[in-house]
Amino acid sequence: MDKDQVLQIFRDCGAMLEGHFILSSGLRSPVFLQKAKVFQYADQTEKLCSALAERIKAEVPGVTKVVSPAIGGIIPGYETARQLGVPALYTERVEGQFELRRGFEIGPDDKVIVVEDIVSTGLSIRECVAALQNIGANVAAAACLIDRSGGEADVGVPLVSLIEFKVPAYPADQLPPELAAIPAVKPGSRGIQGVK
Question: Where is the Phosphoribosyltransferase domain (predicted)?
């Protein structure tokens, strides 16, 4: 699956939004990928995650468990794990820190990949990887459907992406005039300090 095919799925699902968006990182962008609009369609999600699973098999063979950061990574993590034929687990925030809960277990022989939906700065994956490494997990790599950093995000382990799609992002005090002229909205799920 190539970049145009992936982005066309997002367009067809009404998930490629244009305007002035506050990203979960706090940066501002003229494009927001509302992946939840794609994930409501199981057939489209299956296409994307099947292609990602094939890339994982080629680049990180032998994965035994998929772990995703809740909440955004749960659906693509589950479907990618299904395509790989391995269990799907997830971490969730407890007092602001990711933890593996709900009786999920990772053994010393497991080869783990963290699967996320979209990477901008890599913060969620870094936090998930750190939580897993703190319990002794062998985190071999991370993977995402779209790397919107264009390969620049540091996730703490090698990153496998279905596609790279570099989208401009700006600090709130360094907006280009055309973006500053549009009211900002925050469609993401993670709260930002100082932004309601």
Answer: 46-154
